[in-house]
Amino acid sequence: xxxxxxxxxxxxxxxxxxxxxxKSILLPIILLGLPLAFFLDIRDWGTFxxxxxxxxxxxxxxxAFNALLIFAAFLVFMFANLYYxxxxxxxxxxxxxxxxxxxxxxxxxxxGNLIMLFIGVETLSISLYILAGSKKFDIASNExxxxxxxxxxxxxxxxxFGIALVYGASGxxxxxxxxxxxxxxxxxxxxxxxxxxxxxxxxxxFKIAAVPFHFWAPDVYAGSPTLITAFMATVGKVAAIAAFYxxxxxxxxxxxxxxxxxxxxxxxxxxxxxxxSAIYQDNLKRMFAYSGISHxxxxxxxxxxLGPKSAGSLLFYGLAxxxxxxxxxxxxxxxxxxxxTFSVEGFKxxxxxxxxxxxxxxMAMMSLAGIPPLAGFMAKYNIFIVAAQSGYLWLVIxxxxxxxxxxxxxxxxxxxxxxxxxxxxxxxETGISYKIHIIFCTFLIIVLGFLSGVIINLI
Amino acid sequence: xxxxxxxxxxxxxxxxxxFCTALFAIGVIGVLxxxxxxxxxxxxxxxxxxxxxxxxxFSAYRNDPAGQIFVFFIMVVAAAEVAIxxxxxxxxYRSTHTIDINVLNKLKW
Lengths: 459, 109
Hints:
The complex is a heterodimer.
Chain A: H1 2-19, H2 26-43, E1 49-51, E2 56-58, H3 60-78, H4 80-83, H5 92-109, H6 114-132, H7 139-170, H8 175-184, H9 191-208, H10 216-223, H11 226-251, H12 256-279, H13 284-305, H14 310-339, H15 350-353, H16 355-369, H17 375-389, H18 393-418, H19 432-448, H20 452-456
Antiparallel strand pairs in A: 1-2
Helix pairs in contact in A: 1-2, 1-5, 2-3, 3-5, 3-11, 3-14, 5-6, 5-11, 6-7, 6-11, 7-9, 7-10, 9-11, 10-11, 10-13, 11-13, 11-14, 12-13, 12-18, 13-14, 13-17, 13-18, 14-16, 14-17, 14-19, 16-18, 16-19, 17-18
Chain B: H1 2-10, H2 13-33, H3 37-62, H4 66-96
């Protein structure tokens, strides 16, 4: 709770200093404020406080995911400097919207009431609609914002209608009451309840971009400004996954039998379709979109399994995904600066000019593909173990095949960087925070693989 | 207020559910079929308002104010959403001089 207040206040402070035209201190304030919020967040560890009639539940799951979200936002802000290098105005509106989106994401991980789920989803989404269209005179950005807005508001409609139906059946928005209702009337639940539950799941599946509700993701990711895409792909996705898990484990755990087949279908379709489509992409941003889709599929495995280690393995998967994806986007941004292209071609010769960035990109791609012993491998491994322990062997087989397919497209930029001839070009100059970000993330990708047990056993 | 609740309970609940489901379906079909961005916005509003009506009906039948409170939340958020949507529409109109969403086809593989 304190962390949410801190981030909201931080956003207001940013807007205030923006009005005062203090451009140079905006980013330093954010980069100091987010660690403070992180600290305030983990200070509540193990307290299990319920706020406002269980509207907001500060349990370890929520705290851990909020910490992860703040960390992801921090990583994105570390290369904001490079992205907005040429912009003269203070950009306080953009930064404040980032922070408000983060607040929405943090509400989504720790809601105890379906009303709060709705508020969190909307706070995140409405901020992201504006951010996606923040390049006002770029038609691609306009298009991305419009597509995101239309699909997002349709998904809101599904979510709301589902909540209304569940409310009609159970008489409450509180997840604890819904669970009690399910156990009390487990043999004669009305069809209305199941329809509502399905609609809620569809609404959230739109947000995590699970197939067949993924069609917005490639266009929106490709059209939005790269920094916003990085934010969307990390904070947006992890928050939606956490919300999905909380719904599945908090409210609807006792009717697991009735939703597992639906999610089973979602997960298989997401893994297969995400990986197959990513193979054909030449634009790296679109490839990241499909990669994000397929990673949502792997994370769905842990939600379907709903075992004792599900939450922990989701947290670790989220961490590995966030670290590798932000690194990927940071290097992609550098390529865009230099060559003006997002295609794989642009990566040619990067290993000679910028060896550190090339190495970071290679590590990030290998981690996302799941090459041992990097973080991504341990994350996938643990998710598959959780799914196999709950008896979903077929899902694990689909997941393994999917991640084998993914090696092909993740290695395309690596091959372009290291094994193709290109004349040496001038080295690209990057800021200090960018360098720290790249080196720190590469370090994390390598080290996290050995710390998976610690993080998974946290929650 | 009790009068309104009584009046609402005068109509069977199943009628409300059928009506709201129909409204919701019309909204979904409108979003899928129509190509004019403004009409799509209207269809989305129809979807949200069908949920509002359903919540109000359930709330009246159960004598539980929570549903009606949630309706206010939805109205506020829907207003914010439409404000953003119209701003995006103006932005697109400036660059393309149309509100037909078929012009949004620059991004594909």
